[in-house]
Amino acid sequence: MAGRSVTARRRRVEEVVPAAARTIASLRDVGYELPQAVADLVDNSVSAGASTVAVDLHFDGTDSWIRIADDGRGMDTATLTESLRYGSVRDYDGNDLGKFGFGLKSASTSQCRRVVVASRRALERARVEVRALDLDHIKKTNRWEILVVDPADRPPHLVDPLRDTTGTVVLWEDLDRILDYKDPWGGWAKRRLLDRAAAIAEHLGMVFHRFLAGKVRGHKLQILVNGDVVDAWDPFCTEEQATTALPEHDVPVASEAGMGIVHVTPYVLPERSDFSDNAAWQRASGPLKWNRQQGLYIYRANRLIQWGGWSRIRTVDEHTKLARVALDFSPDLDAAFGINISKAIVKLPTDLRDEIEPVVSQVARIAQQRYRKSGSKGSVRTGSISTGSRPTPPSAGPRSRPSAEATYPAAGLRPTTVETNVHSSGTPSPVEQAARQAIEAAARAAGEHEALERIVASLRRTAPEVARDLGW
Questions:
Q1: Residue 176 is part of a domain; what is its CATH number?
Q2: Does pTM surpass 0.85?
Q3: How much is the mean pLDDT over the chain?
Q4: Taking a C-beta distance cutoff of 8 angstroms, is the pair 393, 441 a contact?
């Protein structure tokens, strides 16, 4: 027995190191959209105790860049180097927004080919440490190497945010996934990059709304995007007097770490005529608009990771669009919820699903009653379509991504206006406007304009939400 144990302990092994160039190229496709990638970096800023995070997008053709700068604790040399290791090793506390040690790298390289990180740990020392993860360098060497960036090679926009504060700056260069145009210096590329600022601000205002509103103890946060303050978007409209908060529930859920608690808080929002004003109603529709914003809002350590949808408990229904339910859990339950690297995929544990189905049924029933009551009073239903003049845009609220639901009549198509959240200018972004015009122009060029009219009319009947998203 002893001999066999010794033999087992001395088993021969060979170390197989993943090929750096091929592996890092594959890791670029973890599944981030640009706003989600930026949010993952803001997670790190929150964990570092930052009170302000500034996101800036700068267009300069092939030299364009995106910068995320915070005033958190900063990192020393060893910590900075470790932060650029895939699967970096550090301790996570119970309320840490990080998890796998991949976020900084995978989120960044999903959007760009070069990530430069500068950090300052102590105010009494002017020393700023800078390292870079360069995919072209790794492709050339096929080695897991990062670059030490000397002071002479540090652009002012990298280190300027750290002149008077501790903190960390992440700079994305060579934005190949964002500026994927044949002419990276053209007007399309510039509009594409700058239009994304509004989408980023809208997403961050939703995902970090509790932090922005000062509702997380010890974590009052301010976020700026291109110098503009991001306002919190409260999905439950708790400032509205007519919002109904139903009884809360604590549901025990088993996980690898033992038993945990999921806190469930159901809400039914007011119907339109009961909102304080039209701007508040428009804002409550959210980034996805009324129908797709109904459902479950799942929070991990107060950070929103799912915003709407019923997770297969029930289907999305026009009559239940006022129903929204908050689910809160701590990172101890990550395995039970199946949290992935990008924190973009979450699944309900089976025992939790069984427990909250009656709660969901109750909130849906009350939402239906409120919806039908609003219809019987002759008021305009939330998210309804009306023909005629364009609605008045909201007079208040933060800047938001121009909505594809803002409709502009095309030649030969029936003028239709969707009551929804639009820019204060009342116009769509150039990219959205051009995309729709391109479809209509292609139909005319092919002699199929009448066919397009029939398709649009059918789409309005069979899939009104899709039609509204496309602007028809």
A1: 3.30.565.10
A2: no
A3: 82
A4: no
Give the H or E element holding residue 149.
Answer: none
CB contact set of 451 (below 8 Å; sequence gap of 6+): 443
- The helix-helix angle for 449-462 and 430-445 (nearest 10°) equals 130
Return the number of other C-beta atoms located less than 10 Å from residue 214's C-beta. Answer: 12
Using pLDDT thresholds of 50, 70 and 90, give the confidence band for residue 180. Answer: confident
Q: Which two tokens stand for residue 194?
A: 């700058």
Q: 348: how many CB neighbours lie within 10 A of its CB?
A: 23
CA distances from 220 to 52, 73, 254, 361 (A): 9, 15, 31, 35
pLDDT tens-digit readout, 182-230: 677 778 888 888 889 999 999 999 999 999 999 999 899 999 999 999 9
| Among 312, 295, 401, CA closest to 353 | 312
Please give the residue range of the domain that contains residue 295: 244-376
Residue where the block lists tokens 């409709």: 407
Question: Token digits for 31?
Answer: 């599944």
255 bridge partner residues: 258
Same-domain pairing of 206 and 138: yes
300 forms beta bridges with 303, 329
Q: For residue range 75-92, what is the model confidence (pLDDT) as tens digits?
A: 999 999 999 998 766 554
Instruction: Return the SS3 of 303.
Output: strand
Residue 69: pLDDT band with limits 50, 70, 90: very high
Residue 386 has pLDDT above 50, yes or no: no
- The answer to whether 337 and 348 are in contact (CB under 8 A) is yes
Element containing residue 427 per DSSP (H, E): none
What is the rounded distance in angstroms from the CA atom of residue 103 to the CA atom of residue 343? 9
Q: What is the rounded distance in angstroms from the CA atom of residue 426 to the CA atom of residue 270?
A: 25
The answer to whether residues 159 and 137 belong to one domain is yes
Please give the C-alpha separations between residue 364 and each of 159, 284, 296, 313, in angstroms, as whole numbers: 51, 18, 12, 11
Q: How many domains does the chain have?
A: 3
**Cα 230 to Cα 206: distance, rounded to the nearest angstrom:** 10
